[in-house]
Amino acid sequence: MIPALLINLPQSTDRLAFQAAQLKQLGITWQRMNATTIADISTAEYERLAKGWERPLRSAEVACFLSHQRAWQTVLQENRPMLILEDDALLSAKTPLLLENLSACLTDADYITLETRARKKLLDKHSTAVNPDFALRRLYQDRTGAAAYILFPQGAQKLLDKAAHENIALADAFICRAYELNAYQTVPAAAIQLDRCEYYRLNHIQNPFASTITPSNNQKPAAGDFAAAARFKYRRIAAQCRMGIRQLSVLGKAQREYVGINTADFRQPEITVL
After folding, report:
1. If both were cysteines, with which of 68, 119, 200, 221 could 56 make a disulfide (CB 3.0 to 4.6 Å apart)?
2. Any idea which fold 4-208+219-265 has?
3. Can you give the pTM of this predicted structure?
């Protein structure tokens, strides 16, 4: 079975307890990785990294990206695929069998997302059956979500190479714009973030966690002067153009659609105090 790598902040012991309970119940082998904290990032490093995307990144967003980057390095160093999890990911009860069956289905995969987040994805019209519960479809364009994805060593190398030559972004945005990845989507999705439980009518599952990335007031750093604001706007326009080109490149063989979940497969873990 593909093992899991859990990204978890040292102070987020409640989230760690949640994931320990979930992964134990599912029988998934896992290891914890200390997430990068705001305190780990110097002011100079923040200024160097935060201003190269489509808007200024919050310090917590920079820390989140650096955490994922370290997870990619771990996959490459261990030279095996791993299920990278953020600590608020909720997994389908059928995830273990999915992880067991995946290796027999694909030989060219760099990246497989298990997640859905109520936004349409650009997917190949054809699918490959994994088992009676899941299929895989080539993913040509996604918009959001980095809470639960399988990364293969060759995919980790591609992401690390990209990070070495391009500006960083939100972790999920950076992955989504990495069109060099041979990316796939599980259908139905095998994971959501806990903040999506209400949307997917999983009313029996509690989400006790506040976001560690977006503050409650949701204020974003200011763009700065006119020239800086113009650069951010240019990057947004350029990103939209790249998305349009991507859509045209797969015209006829792909379609935009929502990826759903099987709600009966999502359950509340029985949490014990660590």
Report:
1. 221
2. Spore Coat Polysaccharide Biosynthesis Protein SpsA; Chain A (3.90.550)
3. 0.92
